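Progress against Task 2.4 (sequence-to-structure conversion) is shown through the following example record, which the project officer requested during the mid-term review.
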Amino acid sequence: MYEPNVVGDWQEYDEHAGLRVRVHRLELAEPPRGRDDAAEGLTYFCLRVTVENRGSRHLGVHLEDGQIDVRLGPDGESAFIDWRNSQFIEGFDVYPLRRATAVLYAAGAEASLSLVDVQVQLRVEEEWTDRRLWAGGIGAHEGAAGAQQGPVRDSLAHQVSVFLRDQAEEGTA
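Structure tokens generated for the chain above:
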């Protein structure tokens, strides 16, 4: 049975030796160019999708709108994607031992942000890769002191997501 990656996990692609991808830094954030009027009443968040080439030759990578799908809450409602504020990877040659990162701004109902699923389908050298799924969440319901207990704070996925995010932050300066 196929299991999703946890936000922060690297996913390697067998069909492209050395290529790996991860969804990370899922966090509350306001968009740099201001909120979209269509997102009124929604809570903004940001995530990053990093493509890394550990292979021996450069690969042309495309990660544009429509190749990232974000679903929220237990019912998998579609998140509002702010295309104007997001930054994609559009036909970039990722050389060996290099990375390229897409930054996606999205919004959704605050009550749904504890469950976030992100599906990514890369296009590498004009070929489509298999879709990959990352699961995580944002502790948007926690108070300023983080004192709230319950399913959001105590869930294993949330704890793993926080741990992996902290580890990733330490490893990237």
